[in-house]
Fold this protein.
Amino acid sequence: MAKVKLTKNELKRQKDMLKRFERYLPTLQLKKQQLQMVIRQVEAEERRKSAEREKLYNEIMEWVEVFGENLALEDLVKVETLETDTGNIAGIDIPVFNRIVFQAIPYDLFVYPPWVDAAIRRLKELLAFDAEIQVLREQQRLLAEELRITTQRVNLFEKVMIPDTKENIRVIQIYLGDQQTAAVVRGKISKNKLAKVKQ
């Protein structure tokens, strides 16, 4: 605990600080709860997208095994851009998946089998899932970092700032009370001495 001045002005300053801390703490606690809730939602969404991606991947693999041709389909599907928007959760900016744009790569219809168009569509869907999952993981990372900082602030207020300020107020009040009592006693002693002198 830092050394505090034992004055009425310092007492007022400490009481004002305590009011500010007690007014700000519920806001921090609400932000912490909101972040925890959103993190759980994002984690659930990421699990759902991962399960859908896994299901799609398994379907594609069954398909590839059936046709058994060694085609380099990844050469026909290239990501051009991943477009994201910015969302705001509890005062922090997070990326939000918007869409994924693929390059238009021409290919010879006589070289590739007829099912290649459907395979390319499915591969694009798979890459879109990968991009969405990547954005969701980035959201989780940013939200977890903000939650860590907010939790530290809540702990600082709950366990350090508010108790220290209350203790400072208590110490100042005891000191000022003692000073007031001493002043009254000195006044009575002086009054008694004056009364004796007049007699």
